């Protein structure tokens, strides 16, 4: 267990120190901050007029438009970089199962990707509460939304971003991921064939509607139940475990063949 925590800490430090993701997050955060500040100026806005639970879910769902995508693109080179820097040779000499090494990398990358988002929503919560726009319950509501909407989406994308570049070029994967993210989460299924609206939708719409009473679109009322949201999250986390297990087996096979 101490070894796993050490791996997580090492990967976290390596990932959190990269400037590119911070710059990308910062640009998107600035855009969202301006939008949220404008929302708070009007007494009829969702942020000011509706309860903290609904507002928290809405904000976190909107953040998922770009944030998991940035995390996935940033994480796509993690295993390939280990190979190019000969880190794999050092890890191979350690008496650790391949699954433990991959789990440490996944959890470290996930924690590093979530850290800027946690800082951002904490700042939004502090501003909304201190400005009197939302009650103190807004902060725990955001934390609940972070667990239900943000973490599953990030975990899903990062798991695939670690595994898929093992078999396809990194740049190709990053392009495919970008296309998939918008196709599979935001295209209306009645307009174009898409995974949006199925239980494999990772952007958080099930949790938004099922847990937070949110809506997508101007006139759409909550369509998914809390039970469906639980099933959606369970399927996403199952996919995460399955993808990491396949990646672990593939890495073990490649080492035996090399």
UniProtKB/TrEMBL annotation:
Domain of life the protein comes from: Bacteria
* Record-annotated membrane-spanning stretches: 21-39, 59-80, 100-130, 136-159, 166-183, 229-252
Keywords assigned by UniProt? Membrane, Transmembrane, Transmembrane helix
Quote the protein name from its UniProt record. Answer: Uncharacterized protein
Q: Which organism is it from?
A: uncultured Aminicenantes bacterium
């Amino acid at each position: 267990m101490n070894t796993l925590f050490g791996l997580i800490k090492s990967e976290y430090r390596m990932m959190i120190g990269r400037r590119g993701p911070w710059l990308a997050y910062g640009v998107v955060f600035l855009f969202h901050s301006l939008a949220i500040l404008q929302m708070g100026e009007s007494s009829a806005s969702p942020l000011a007029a509706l309860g903290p639970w609904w507002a928290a879910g809405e904000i976190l769902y909107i953040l998922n438009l770009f944030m998991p995508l940035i995390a996935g693109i940033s994480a796509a080179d993690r295993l390939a970089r280990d190979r190019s820097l000969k880190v794999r040779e050092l890890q191979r000499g350690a008496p650790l199962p391949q699954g433990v090494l991959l789990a440490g990398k996944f959890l470290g990358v996930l924690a590093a990707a979530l850290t800027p988002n946690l800082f951002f929503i904490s700042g939004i919560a502090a501003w909304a509460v201190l400005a009197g726009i939302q009650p103190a319950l807004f902060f725990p509501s955001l934390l609940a939304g972070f667990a239900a909407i943000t973490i599953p989406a990030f975990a899903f994308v990062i798991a695939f971003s670690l595994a898929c570049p093992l078999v396809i070029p990194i740049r190709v994967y990053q392009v495919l991921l970008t296309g998939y993210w918008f196709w599979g989460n935001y295209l209306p299924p009645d307009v174009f064939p898409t995974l949006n609206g199925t239980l494999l939708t990772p952007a958080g719409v099930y949790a938004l509607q099922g847990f937070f009473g949110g809506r997508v679109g101007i006139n759409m009322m909550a369509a998914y139940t809390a039970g469906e949201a639980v099933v959606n999250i369970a399927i996403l986390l199952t996919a995460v475990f399955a993808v990491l297990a396949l990646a672990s087996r593939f890495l073990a096979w490649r080492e035996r063949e090399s």
